[in-house]
Amino acid sequence: MCGIIGFCGYLDAKEELIKGLAELEYRGYDSAGIACYTDRGIEVIKSVGKVEGLKNKLPAKLESSCGIGHTRWATHGGVSEVNAHPHRSGNVTLIHNGIIENYHELAKELEGMGKIPVSQTDTEIAAMLLDSLYESNQGNVLETLRGAVERLEGAYAFCIMFADQKDVIYCIRKGSPLVCCSSEEGSIVASDMVALLRYSKEYFVLPEFQVAKVTKNTITVMDLDGTVVSPVMLSVHWDMSAAQKNGFKHYMLKEIHEQPEAIRRTLAPRMKKGNYLLPDFTEDGITDEVFKNTNRVVITACGTAMHAGMAGKILMEKLLRIPVQVEIASEFRYADPILDENTLVILVSQSGETADTLAALRLAREKGAKTLSIVNVKGSSIARESDYVLYTHAGPEIAVASTKAYTAQLTAFYLLAFRFAYVIGKRNEQEISYYMKGLDEVGALMEKVLEQKDKMKELSKRLTPAQDLFFIGRSLDYALACEGSIKLKEITYIHSEAYAAGELKHGTLSLVTGGVPVIALATQSDVFAKMISNVKEVRARGAMVILITKEDNDAVIENTIFDERLMIPAGDDIFAPFTAAIILQLLAYYTSSYRGLDVDQPRNLAKSVTVE
Ligand code: F6R
After folding, report:
1. pLDDT at residue 240 tops 90
2. Residues 195, 20: contact at Cβ < 8 Å?
3. How far is the CA of 376 from the centre of ligand 1 (A)?
4. 486 in ligand 1 pocket by Cβ < 6 Å?
5. How confident is the model at residue 454, as a pLDDT?
6. How many CB atoms lie within 10 A of CB 116?
7. Which is the catalytic residue, given 14, 19, 378, 607?
8. Structural domains in the chain?
9. How far apart are CA 383 and CA 177, in angstroms?
10. From CA 107, how far away is CA 100, in angstroms rounded?
11. Torsions phi, psi for 427 (to 5 deg)
12. What pLDDT is recorded for position 244?
């Protein structure tokens, strides 16, 4: 949430900042701004709306080789130019990602000193505090930052320019992410790796409470007492094209198509062929002891990642016969959860930076549970702080609506469940080999569904005028219904709900009237007959039913109970969520397109939710 970038080097800073902001725009897009050191001092330019608007506003003459840029997702203070970053107070100009929780108290103190903010933001208060500390510490940066860290509560990643230190940027963070790299072009810092890719594949994560002093030639990292430290270098395998649209109209459509490959990449390092095909976590450092000593699993995450966890729970309980619980991270962290050393807490996060999931992880560790995270972004906070990490290899996900990260998370859950079941003796080698073979074939099955995308495109025309829509399913189909519903509502703005099909008649059925679209998932044989009864119930109330079943379903289904029937390829029921997910993602995508909406950057949302 909020994209931040700093550049100090041998190129035109304003151009580099604009390029970086365009790449980070998915983190927030209600306003944007840059600040650059020039011969006339620090110049700040801001604008409401997208980065393109800011670009058009830049003066032709803005000669600078060092500056900072920000693209905002509003927290404190509405969307306006005055609330956009960078914020300036006296000697200090800064950008911020996070939330300063005690800003009200600090504002009062500063007011007592005659300092009145011009914006409604917590960030300007931070700038004012830093300026006042800089003055009282006679320009000593480390003293200033030490003082600020003592006083600021909440989460922050700051890039700070001091007016009297031309061409130097100082960075410090707590909670919110910040990555840094050096290249021939200069030194660059950003909220995520996507904006560093044009310069380098080697980078480091700035550790919390350490200071990065960024100049043209180098980035010096030091403790708050001034001791210089060497950061741990990381590298990514993707190149620039992984973060570009590559001919697709939207990132979301591209990412939907990338799913078979993302799954294969996630599987490959864990597929060691021997006599039997068993998941192998040697490279991940996840030992069998982790599973042997576990008598309970708690999965916690937010949004789509939590939906992947819901499917994970069903699969794990089925195979392991031990209790598995799924909790929304923002609830879990305040619920005083009962955990012990035999509980395995699984955290799921594409970004690895979601504030609530990170807090849930810290709580689980505090309470002595073992923690294992399923994360896409290498070196992210959740990955670094977990006892074990199983990386998904989905590559960069740019569209705000998650697609390939979701199916890659499912893949990780399936691998975990299979190994776990094998280790605790609930399934033997032959059985696990059979499942692994099925998982290995999922990519090819997904490709078959993608070949039918025109069907989903055509069908979406019927969903486009809808005001309300329901997704129903049972068991794994219910977990997927939740995901289908969030996908649809976030990018089409159509009100939608997911219901466990059997629960509908306990209240919600009153909302199902003539013509209301109901997307019914019926891919699970054990509950198929019950599911069809529920479909008949909504049909009897006049619903427009889109029924999703498997090709190899040989039950006789009267064609009067649905308006449209879509089929996923044959195969074991447990793999149905992978292929059915593509249908739901494409329906959401095309419906959003027909409604003329911004598919990749839906209103009010942003990627990587680093605030609570
Ligand atoms: C929906 C979506 C969100 C995220 C959620 C968690 O399409 O993308 O619901 O899944 O914000 O984000 P991560 O996975 O980064 O923790």
Report:
1. no
2. yes
3. 11
4. yes
5. 97
6. 9
7. 607
8. 3-236 (3.60.20.10), 245-440 (3.40.50.10490), 450-602 (3.40.50.10490)
9. 12
10. 11
11. -140, 145
12. 85
**Residues 72, 67: Cα–Cα separation, whole Å:** 17
φ/ψ of residue 110, rounded to 5: -65, -35
Tokens encoding 234: 């990381």
Residue 373: CB within 6 Å of ligand 1? no
Percent of the chain scoring above 70 in pLDDT: 100
59 Cα to the center of ligand 1, angstroms: 37
Specify the residue with its C-alpha closest to ligand 1, atom 5: 303
- The pLDDT-based confidence of 311 (bands split at 50, 70, 90) is very high
Question: Residues 427-447, buried b or exposed e (16+ Cβ, 10 A)?
Answer: beeeebbebbebbeebbebbb
pLDDT in tens, 253-274: 999 999 999 999 999 999 987 7
Percent of residues, the chain, with pLDDT higher than 90: 92
The protein residue with its alpha carbon nearest to ligand 1, atom 6, reads: 302
Question: Is the pTM value of this prediction over 0.90?
Answer: yes
> Residue 611 pLDDT more than 90?
no
Residue 295's CB is within 10 A of a number of other CB atoms, namely 11
Please indicate whether residue 2 is annotated as part of the active site.
yes
**C-alpha distances in angstroms, 578 versus 335, 501, 534, 563, 583?**
32, 20, 23, 23, 9
Span from the CA of 608 to the centroid of ligand 1 (angstroms): 7
User: Angle at the Cα of 459 (from 453 to 465), degrees rounded to 5?
Assistant: 135
Residue with tokens 């560790």: 365
The stretch 113-123 carries a mean pLDDT of 95
